[in-house]
Amino acid sequence: PVDIAVVISDIDGVPIEAARVAVVSEMEGMTGHRDETATTEVAPGRYLARDAPLAMPGVWRLTVRVSPQSKL
Fold first, then answer.
1. Which of 19, 26, 52, 59 has a CA-to-CA distance to 1 between 20 and 30 Å?
2. What is the CB neighbour count within 10 angstroms for residue 43?
3. Confidence check: pLDDT of 51 > 90
4. Strand 46-52's sheet: what is its strand order?
């Protein structure tokens, strides 16, 4: 497992705070091998996905999903 750091800002470079951010990892050539790791905001606009399961060597595709925090 590895930690993945993500920095999110708007077009002007202003950090996006309090978002829901997840890192989706898919190993190239491995059908059905897809994991989603939630992140924690560690500083304004800086998010950390801890222990993302990239356990095998090879080519991985990472997708970052960002959505507003729910106001429930």
1. 19
2. 10
3. yes
4. 2-7, 46-52, 40-43
Token output for 1 = 């497992």
Q: What is the pTM of this model?
A: 0.85
CA 38 to chain centre: 7
- Residue-wise DSSP of the chain: -EEEEEE-B-TTS-B--SEEEEEEEEETT-TT-EEEEE-EEEETTEEEEEEE---SSS-EEEEEEEEEPP--
CA-based torsion, 12, 7, 27, 39: positive or negative? negative
- The CA distance from 4 to 37, in Å, is 10
Q: What CA–CA distance (Å, rounded) separates 18 from 45?
A: 8
In which band, very low, low, confident or very high, does the pLDDT at 56 lie, cut at 50, 70 and 90? confident
